[in-house]
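Chapter summary example: a protein plus calcium ion.
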Amino acid sequence: MRSDILPFDQALRDHYVEFRADILSQIQERINNGETGTFSFQLTTPWQLFDFENVSGRHIERGEEIFSDHKPLENWYYAMGSFSYTYGAEVTVTPTSGGQWQVTINSQVHVFDRYNWDSQKSTGLAGATVQDIELGRLHQVGLAKEYEIWGRGSIATETFTFSP
Ligand SMILES: [Ca+2]
């Protein structure tokens, strides 16, 4: 998914920078509060929204032939539209010599989407505009089904030395 949706990959990189800064300030706070031995904690970020139509440097409008150069991106767009993601991490901090600490962050990306039909929106599909409310009616009569998508990435490990 990250390799198909490069703007999402970039959003994750940017989000991880913020997440890592939050982790470091939590570590700093715990050490300030008197931690002297190894400690661990878990942290998750609030859910973030990834919206194809809000990707910087790229103007995307429904119904436009904008994915002709990148089929996998188009597939994700039609399967999920906008979706939510979050980072979760397990952090372990161990004192080393000279007042420094070794930090290990095991982090993982989670993705969530509820594929439902929104009567305010329409999508250009095969040259025709299909109103979402029509698709919603299909759902109501049992021809199409709303569903949820949950996904998670592999665990990434980062280890480094932290000087309070
Ligand atoms: Ca969606």
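Key point: Residues 80-83, 113, 115 surround calcium ion (CB under 6 Å).
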